[in-house]
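Below sits the subject:
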Amino acid sequence: APSIDAVVSTFGVLNVLAIAAAVLVIIVLLMYVQARGRAQVVAYGLSRHMGLKHAGYRRSLTGEIAIILILSSALGSVLALVSARLISSELDPLATIPPDPLFAAPWILIPFIFATALVVSWLGGLITSRQLRRAELGQAVRVEE
């Protein structure tokens, strides 16, 4: 039936959009870390000079990335659930025939989303801290004329 085919195509498009959103999140995370590169080198150098250990700086950097990813994942999950609940009744291909469409929230996937955000933040903190350890502080604070 054309109406059922339209619903199946809609879910296919939503799957492609979900993959595109995941790729976009990874790209934005990398751009964020790259944009803060010079400031991070200076902050790392100053914090090391004041006595903060490398592991402590890595933990704080991982915490910063984790907070951003956890909050954005929570906001995205809430907005996705609300929008899916509002739209699920509109996607019924045969609205005149009972029963109404069922809405089943993917509650089991939400902990995996947060676990993935924690793993990505840990990897981001690890990679960035390694780059900071190798960076030269003098080049980051040098003023070009």
